[in-house]
């Protein structure tokens, strides 16, 4: 008489992997979908827009030089002295793309030490 072979029970790991994968895809799609815009909405075209910085922003050039309202070679202390208390609450800074991040951090730190409340960097935003 032959010994009876035991049937090994296979675990349904493939089915479990498929379910987890489908759940992953579902949550990725659900998290990235945005409500659709109205069909009648016409977005503003910025193709012809001049890329000039706002007039009340501190412009920081790639070499660390700063300008404000057309005046070149502005210092942090001189810039802060020209502002009112209300204007010091939120400052806008337009850094050049080639400005090293270390220099930007140093300049914003100096602005905070001179009494700036919040420093906001004005950047270019690319739409997907």
Let me know the largest β-sheet. Answer: 5 strands, mixed
Mean pLDDT: 79
The level of helicity is 25-40%
Catalogue the unreliable spans.
Answer: none
Distance between the termini: 72 Å
Would you report the number of β strands? 5
Radius of gyration: 29 Å
Indicate the proportion of strand residues.
Answer: 5-15%
Across the major sheet, the strand order is: 3-2-1-4-5
Give the overall silhouette: elongated
**Overall SS class:** alpha/beta
Order of helical and strand elements: HEEEHEHE
By DSSP (H or I, 4+ residues per run), the number of helices equals 3
How is this structure best summarized?
The chain has 128 residues and is α/β, with parallel strands linked by helices.
What do these coordinates show?
This protein is of the alpha/beta class and 128 residues long. It has a domain at 58-121. The protein is built from three helices and five strands. Strands 3-2-1-4-5 form a five-stranded mixed sheet, with helices on one face. Strand 1 (58-60) and strand 2 (66-68) form a beta hairpin. The protein starts with 12 loop residues before the first helix and ends in a 7-residue tail after the last strand.
